[in-house]
Design goal:
The chain is an alpha/beta fold and 1018 residues long. Helices cover 63% and strands 6% of the residues. It starts with 13 loop residues before the first strand and ends with a helix.
Length: 1018
């Protein structure tokens, strides 16, 4: 159906078709739906009709991984355009909280109709009306025109389309199965061949075609079809056909009666041929079998997963066996959850609750064979030994027949793979199968899987209290919290620790925490009796092949909490596609976690295990060297984008260059840096500790740009010291001078001005007269540090030497920094005209090279210099520009400085409310900033705002805080300003002696620094 039928009122209605290319119809008229972005937004809403789709999901659907900065605004414009293009669009696409919702009637969307026809088909099958079901399924197939948006919808829509394609294939397979059961054969061959062309590896379709050919009297062609699919599977995937297709082939080969055309029989009729009726029905006199293990009285957590299992187990029968799988890493509590759920569901399955340990991952034991398990299950439901067939196929048939007459709950624990499980599944819709395994069995059709993660900190603490006793945990709350953290939310580890503490009543919780704190012995400590975290992990490790084990060990060297495919490829020495396959395999084995798409990580205990199984054959040095080279090249690429105009030092790694992530925009580069920040710190530290001084110095310098931008000044100093040590080892005076200059800047940010001067002086002595660029950099930093100490004459001397050197070398970015520092000194000392000149030039250069953070700083000081010259409107214009450029995630202390001065301007203009709001936000930002240097300056300005707003008591509080911060640093200009403010506040509060004392102290400092009278006034 293309166009929309008229409504009951005779008016045309709007209808959308998304099962193929996007179509919109208003009656017989096809709608023009706009740009590709608008189409993607509309399709994303239509894929979830009636549900709120949040704005971030619409952004991801529209632009995949690279949304523009204005993405949210463009989505809103797209929705507005769609509402205009679609008749009555405002009521069809409604705003709902932080997103939008598509509101459609039953016949306005082909996806709605597809779902309804499929539901009616299931109901007809359940009722035994096969011919009616075929009609409903045919209606489903007629609606299908291909992938959503014809496969051109981007990552988000393509993923949703893949799920719909699976539903389409399930409908098609059931359609052909029912047609075959109804006696059709020849008529199905053509349509089946067409579908197989599109899905050549789908074994179920091949089976249907083979059966149709055979029943049409074309046995040879049916056997040839098996040969073709076997060759294709070997060529494409390196595997043979599955067991079911192979059994069908063998049945056709020997003309088995089971594949011959026949009139369908009921379940009861088939059962009567297999076993006497007395054994089929459960005995009324015998108790129902129950082989479930005992339920844990202290079971804790897992509420969402438990609720879902209970919901599936208690839902009305839906035409097939209900299968719920629980996968997770070893020790995550899969069996405990499954057993707990089974006990809660026992009353719903009165004919038996059966438990089988399949031993897929059991120390020293082989996985159980399905045939042996079936024998046990049949015996459990009362079938005598002499009635149980010898071969697997007939045992499977008998089990399905017997279980079809019962309401059974079957718990298959510790499964190895789908091949082991498939013959054991009951056939009736009244049965429930719960599976547990370390690997999710994606090839087990019809199963709903729940991945079990780690316990939350609250649930971990609750489990410790329940197992250890409230007396002991409340007596040592901090140690208990630490113990939960060391166990990493792994239930097995938590239970082992409490078992040890119960067995050692004289041990305190803190004593065990101290033992576990040593990472090298932690796994040994997590052992009690036959239970051991190490043994549990070893089973998963040993189940891998040799290459996977090597990859697991090498990935354990990655120092970050998140591993992406690029850094993994560097560590493993492979391309990114092979690295992704390896990561996915480890994820499937639950030896890695995935908190978001494309990012993987180790549980702490798994990482410890990976480090404990390292082998001499592992090329660890080569792997770490490749990782350092990768991060050096990647950070260099990110710095090119984020910090244009920076000066380069040293040679980048050469040789086999690893594939780098796409870092071609500010947003991508910054997102990558934020994610890799922790790993980069660890890699720099490891490289510095090893014999890699060259790469260490280069990587450290690239990382420093990012740390400075984010305001991580303690880390900035740590990395700077590593870079200095590396440069000393290289005996490279130029690189050492640059590294010393960076370390001096770190000292400045953290208020250690005198240490900074000594460090910068050492750097200057190394390169004076030898390298003009490094010399200029050291002079600039010396000027910065002397300015902070209030030595304004010395600061001017150093900065006026640095500026022409930068200019001569064409280093615009560095010249702008030196000019900015000189403008700051002149404004501090009251020479406002000079301050305007230098800050204006700095702003011009910063704008030219694209140094946004530096431009914010120079604009701010240009505004303050204009205030000094009485040009308030120019000051306001400069500060407004700075505010427009601000991003609170980049140098938040500098943003707070801008906000504080904007509050000051608002207060001067009588905008009291705006002044208060900006002052408050400035304090919030700067309090999170690690730099007491910036805190002192911001708090002083906020104190002035409070004072001029008529709140001298609050102002006095601010000024005292600023004085304390600045005094600790010897930050003389801010000490003097705090004292001046305290004098005014004291006077306003009527404390004249205190006012006089503070004023004299401030004047003495201003005199010593040579500050003009004009600059001393607040």
């Amino acid at each position: 159906m293309d166009s929309a039928a008229p409504s009951a009122s005779g008016r045309p209605v709007v209808r959308f078709n998304i099962l193929g290319s996007l179509e919109g119809w208003h009656g017989e008229r096809r709608l023009r739906l706009g740009s590709p972005t608008q189409e993607r937004v509309l399709v994303t809403l239509l894929l979830e009709p009636g549900r709120m789709v949040p704005l971030p999901r619409l952004v991801a659907a529209a632009w995949d991984e690279a949304p523009p900065q204005t993405a949210g605004h463009q989505i809103r414009k797209s929705v507005a355009a769609l509402r205009t293009r679609i008749p009555d669009g405002a009521s069809m696409i409604v705003t709902d909280g932080a997103g939008y919702r598509a509101m459609l009637g039953e016949h306005q969307l082909d996806l709605h109709e597809f779902t309804q026809w499929a539901r009616q088909a299931r109901q007809a099958v359940t009722a035994g009306h096969a011919a009616e079901a075929v009609g409903h399924l045919r209606a489903c197939l007629d609606l299908w025109r291909g992938p959503v948006m014809a496969g051109a919808g981007g990552t988000v829509i393509t993923a949703a389309s893949a799920a719909l394609e699976e539903r389409h294939m399930a409908v098609a397979e059931q359609y052909f199965e029912l047609q075959l059961e109804l006696g059709q054969s020849t008529e199905l061959v053509g349509p089946l061949r067409e579908l197989i062309i599109a899905h050549p590896l789908r074994e179920t379709l091949r089976g249907r075609l083979m059966l149709a050919l055979y029943r049409a009297g074309r046995q040879a062609e049916a056997l040839e079809e098996f040969g073709r699919v076997r060759a294709l599977l070997v060529e494409e995937l390196g595997i043979d056909p599955g067991a079911e297709l192979t059994r069908l082939y063998e049945a056709i080969l020997r003309d088995s009666p089971e594949v011959a055309p026949r009139v369908p029989q009921s379940v009861a009729d088939r059962a009567a041929l297999l076993a006497p009726a007395a054994y089929l029905q459960p005995s009324a006199s015998e108790p129902a079998p129950c082989t479930l293990p005992y339920d844990l009285p202290d079971f804790t957590g897992r509420e969402p997963e438990l609720a879902r299992i209970l919901q599936v187990g208690r839902a009305p029968a839906g035409g097939s066996t209900r299968i719920v799988g629980v996968d997770g890493m070893g020790g995550s509590g899969k069996s405990a959850l499954a057993v707990h759920a089974a006990h809660l569901l026992a009353a719903d399955y009165p004919d038996g609750q059966l438990f089988v340990d399949l031993r897929g991952f059991s120390p020293g034991e082989k996985a159980q064979e399905p045939s042996a398990v079936l024998h046990s299950l049949l015996r459990a439901v009362g079938i005598p030994d002499d009635r149980i067939p010898d071969d697997l196929e007939r045992r499977t048939t008998l089990w399905r027949t017997v279980s079809a007459q019962r309401r059974l709950l079957l718990l298959l624990d510790n499964a190895a793979d789908a091949a082991q499980v498939r013959p054991l599944l009951p056939a009736a819709e009244d049965c429930l199968a719960i599976l547990t395994g370390r690997v999710r069995m994606l090839d087990l059709d019809g199963a709903e899987w729940l991945s079990l993660g780690l316990l939350s900190p609250d649930d971990s603490a609750t489990l410790l209290t329940r197992t250890l006793g409230a007396d002991r945990t409340t007596a040592e709350p901090e140690a208990t919290a630490r113990l939960a953290g060391l166990c990493g939310g792994l239930p097995l580890a938590l239970r082992i620790t409490t078992a040890r503490l119960r067995n050692r009543p004289r041990w305190t919780v803190q004593y065990l925490v101290d033992r576990l704190a040593d990472e090298t012995r932690r796994l040994r400590e997590l052992s009690a009796g036959e239970r051991s975290v190490e043994a549990t992990l070893r089973l998963s490790y040993q189940a891998m092949d040799a290459d996977q084990r090597i990859a697991f060990r090498l990935l354990g060297l990655h120092p970050g909490s998140a591993i992406d495919v690029h850094s993994a490829a560097a560590l493993l020495g492979t391309d990114v596609h092979d690295a992704e396959d390896t990561l996915e395999n480890l994820l499937d084995a639950h030896l890695l976690e995935q908190h978001e798409a494309g990012l993987y990580g180790f549980h702490d205990l798994v990482r410890t295990y990976a480090m404990s199984v390292r082998e001499a054959e592992d090329d660890e040095e080569g792997a770490v060297g490749r990782l350092v080279s990768y991060y050096t090249l990647a950070t260099d690429q990110a710095c090119d984008v984020l910090f244009p105009g920076r000066e380069r030092f040293g040679e980048l790694p050469v040789g086999d260059v690893p594939e780098l992530p796409r870092l071609d925009s500010d947003a991508r580069a910054l997102r990558w840096y934020d994610r890799e920040h922790e790993a980069l710190l660890a890699v720099v530290a490891r490289a510095g500790a090893g014999a890699r001084p060259g790469p260490t110095a280069l990587l450290a310098r690239n990382l420093l740009f990012y740390l400075d931008m984010r305001g991580h000044y303690e880390q900035f100093r740590v990395v700077s010291r590593i870079a200095v040590d590396a440069a000393r080892e290289l005996a490279d005076p130029m690189l050492l001078s640059v590294s010393l200059s960076n370390l001096a800047v770190a000292h400045w940010w953290l208020g250690d001005f005198r240490d900074g001067i000594a460090t910068a002086q050492e750097g200057l002595e190394l390169v004076s007269g030898k390298d003009r660029g490094s010399e200029a950099s050291c002079l600039d930093v010396l000027g910065l540090l002397h300015g902070a100490l209030g030595n304004f004459d010395e600061a001017r001397t150093y900065l006026t030497q640095a500026i022409p050197l930068h200019r001569e070398l064409g280093l615009d970015r560095m010249e702008a920094q030196a000019l900015d520092n000189l403008g700051t000194v002149e404004t501090w000392s009251g020479h406002y005209a000079e301050g305007v000149r230098h800050s204006a030039r700095a702003t011009e250069l910063n704008r030219r090279v694209g140094a946004r953070s530096n431009e914010i700083h120079s604009l701010t000081w240009l505004a303050l210099a204009h205030l000094g010259t009485g040009e308030d409107e120019r000051a306001r214009a400069c500060l407004a520009q700075a505010l427009e450029l601000c991003d609170e995630s980049r140098k938040p202390g500098n943003v707070a400085f801008v906000l504080a001065h904007w509050a000051r301007l608002c207060q001067r203009r009588g905008e009291a409310r705006s002044a208060a709001e900006h002052a408050e936000r400035a304090l919030e930002l700067v309090s999170a900033d690690s730099s007491a240097l910036r805190q002192a300056a911001v708090v002083n300005v906020v104190g002035l705002v409070q004072l001029r707003s008529g709140a001298p008591d609050r102002a006095m509080e601010m000024y005292r805080q600023a004085h304390q911060l600045a005094s600790r640093l010897c930050y003389r200009i801010e000490i003097a300003r705090a004292l001046s403010g305290m004098a005014e506040a004291a006077q306003a509060l009527g404390d004249e002696p205190a006012a006089r004392q503070h004023r004299h102290a401030a004047e003495a400092l201003y005199d010593a620094m040579g500050v003009t009278e004009a600059a001393r006034r607040l």
